Amino acid sequence: MASTKPQGPRPAKTSRIELRATEDDRDLLDRAAAALGTDRSSFLLAQGRLAAQRVLADRENFVLDANAQQEWERINNRPARRLPSLVRLLERPSPFVAPTADQPQA
Question: Does the pTM of the predicted model rise above 0.70?
Fold first, then answer.
């Protein structure tokens, strides 16, 4: 399997990750790694990295096509609405902070 990443010096692997698995899971991972022409460690690291990137993607990056970008900008450029219920909520004293002398008691 040909790599599409540029070849160059790889960072040293200085951290060890260990995990427990059943024999069946280990065999399954070994078969999948062999099907891709790699070893278990490389397979697990690559697949784990992909899974982690998927989990974190919507928390770190937003990728929008041109139409979605225009819609995003349209929504975010709208004037803010006044929401009376939200104003009342934000004016209430916090239940998590003890009132000070200048704050009314709830």
Answer: no
